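Reviewer 2 asked us to include a model.

Predict the structure of this chain.
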Amino acid sequence: MENHYTVIIIGGGPIGLACALEAQSAGLDYLILEKGALVNSLYNYPVNMTFFSTSERLEIGEVPFVSNNAKPTRAEALEYYRRVAVSYHVNIHLFEKVIEVKAQGTRNNEQENYKVVTNKNVYSAHYIIIATGFYDIPYKLNVPGEDLPKVAHYYKDPHFYAFQNVLVVGANNSAVDAALETWRKGAEVTMAIRRDQIGERVKYWVRPDMLNRITEGSIKAYFNSTVKEIREHEVDIQTPDGLVTIQNDWVLAMTGYQPNLDFLRSLGIQLSDDEVMKPAYDETSYETNVKNIFIAGVICGGMNTHRLFIENSREHAKKVIQTVKERSAKENLHTE
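Predicted model (structure tokens):
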């Protein structure tokens, strides 16, 4: 059948690529559908970002990742995953967003295929693997003025903010990197932090630098504080000492991101009824409660996005594909 694959992988990040390499090794025909660029989440990281992990912990498919530094950079990671995609001739469609996945057809009273509708085409597959990560939906501030053009939920390059009044909202890695880098390019940086300290998970070689800049007054930090309103040239911050209004040109709302759990719900995948909203899946095969739909990577953690990373979820690909290979072999044998 035209546009039919044994496996369709939704998400072209490192774990989606890992699933593709495992599928190739198993002799399974597959297609990756990625709504953005190759490893789109990594592409959207700040241009100067350095990973917490070492390069060997970011490797997939046993392809060596050689870095010039102890901790690889974003640019090195993008080059590495491009090299993986080229070396293995990975079958991937970029900038093709999945709109709908629906069960289609039956065999022996069981669902046979899934129809996958994208913004460009229609496909069918017997198995679906969802490896969509969590970087696509930012947590909103939900305050007046958040929709102004001056507000960004993604931070890329510090030079853009040189000699500007910048408010950074948040206290974890992305916020700290944005604050330090824009300050070093000449920005007047203020931070609004909901808690009473800089995040404990901030990279250990960066956190002391941030604390020193706050202590010396180079960067003004309002702890136990929240943004109340954003206007064209000002921002109101609610602090323990009352409302503070500061001059402002740009707001970098580095408040974190969340997975697209609504997409999982649309497929019938059950989520836990607590705040984590963890998807229901088998811990051995990574198959969800919906037959022949699997998940892999950070999406397995639901809203607990700090539990899974590339280095401790790349093994998901092996377990998923092993299950698919064994099941596919049995089904093919049954039909002969």
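The first strand starts at residue 4 and ends at 10. The two ends are 18 Å apart (CA to CA). We have added this to the supplementary material.
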